[in-house]
Amino acid sequence: MEIEFTDQNFAEYTSQNKPMLIDFYADWCGPCRHLAPTVEALAQKYEGKAIVGKCNVDENEELTSRFGIRNIPAVFFLVGDEVKDKSIGAVPANVLEEKLNAIL
What span, in angstroms and rounded, lies between the C-alpha atoms of 96 and 39? Predict the structure, then answer.
């Protein structure tokens, strides 16, 4: 299941110390809308293995600032609170899957 990360709930997920994929997006962003089905598919495929979700940059200024998001879509890969990798822009599904597999 895809998670909606917010400024309020983010610590709840990082405290689980599981691999995480976070898609930083905005509703008005065309490339973000293009990437959304890929993130949804990864959330289903990796359910129970990783925490996969998205964070709306317009609604969550604290997280956007914390991760220095300047371009979207931006997909970050974390374990706990530590950034392990990232991908900026709309990329093919296999690129995101490879990066996620690398932190499992």
Answer: 9
